[in-house]
Amino acid sequence: MRFLFLFLIAVIMSSSLWAQNTDTTRVVKDSTGLVIQDVIPVSIQVIDSVAKKIDLPVITVTPDSTNVSSSVDTLNVPSIAKDTVVSKSDSSSTGVNAVNSPAVIIPNAPLDPNYTYSSQNYGLALAKVGNKEQTDTIVFLNGDKVLANVKKFTFRDLFYGFPGDVKMVAVDRRYVQKIIYKYGRVETISAREVDIREVGGWKDVKVLKKRTAAIKDMVDVGEVEGVDEGTREKYVDARDLERSATITIQKKAALLGATIVLITTRDVRRPYGDPPYVRLVARAYKPK
């Protein structure tokens, strides 16, 4: 009996435990089902809403962009008007060549009738009308002769003035061939390029730095000058500039038929911030 009683108790306890396990499993299933019922619809709704948000802009933008492009095509854009002055197709127009050709320069004031003027260089006064004073003669490379008094030189310009005038005129000295001073001395400033290039025998011209007996019985044919200067772009030694100026003097002297030059002025300058320059002046001599 005692054994049977214990067996019944064990059976009852095992039955209660099995029932509890069955209920727990059901709860889990139910809870899982609740989760599925609550979560899955939400996730589907979220996915649907996102898809709609993505699709809607694509659907609305495409027609808008089409409308915009079509409206742009229908805009009346004014075309750029063609130049009516310069026209290659219109034969009645002025034409390209005529438009690009330099216009006639009209001076602000008429030329002073008190001077005579060059026929080659417009506005270049050559002499003062009615002047009776003796003047220097400035000879240009193109043949123009200015009857005025030389005032001063710089390394780039020549300054002169007409008798009775206070103002001075400045010209680029590279265009001046020579100066015939009123007392007879002739100074060569810039020989013509063709003459300098084609001159021969200039290497035979002897260069003297002081007076010697070699020029005692020779004829002085004039003064020659050589000027050379460096540039800011390229540094040049002053000795190279002096060598170049000396060659210029020799060539100018050879054009005058001289065989000896005597250096009378040597001006070498190295101004601060500016390129160096050299100016040489010499007397040219030839045999009698």
Explain how this protein is built.
With 288 residues, the protein is an alpha+beta fold. The protein folds into three domains: 1-64; 109-182, SH3 type barrels (Roll); 191-288, Translation Initiation Factor IF3 (2-Layer Sandwich), CATH 3.30.110.70. 35% of the residues lie in helices and 26% in strands. It contains four helices and twelve strands. The strands form two sheets. It has a ten-stranded mixed beta sheet with strand order 6-5-4-3-7-8-10-12-11-9. The protein starts with a helix and ends with a strand. Mean pLDDT is 69; it is low at 22-108.
Layout of SSEs?
Layout: H1 2-73, H2 96-100, E1 115-117, E2 125-128, E3 136-140, E4 145-153, E5 157-161, E6 169-172, E7 176-180, E8 186-188, H3 193-198, E9 206-208, E10 218-229, H4 238-255, E11 260-269, E12 277-287
Parallel strand pairs: 8-10, 9-11
Antiparallel strand pairs: 1-2, 3-4, 3-7, 4-5, 5-6, 7-8, 10-12, 11-12
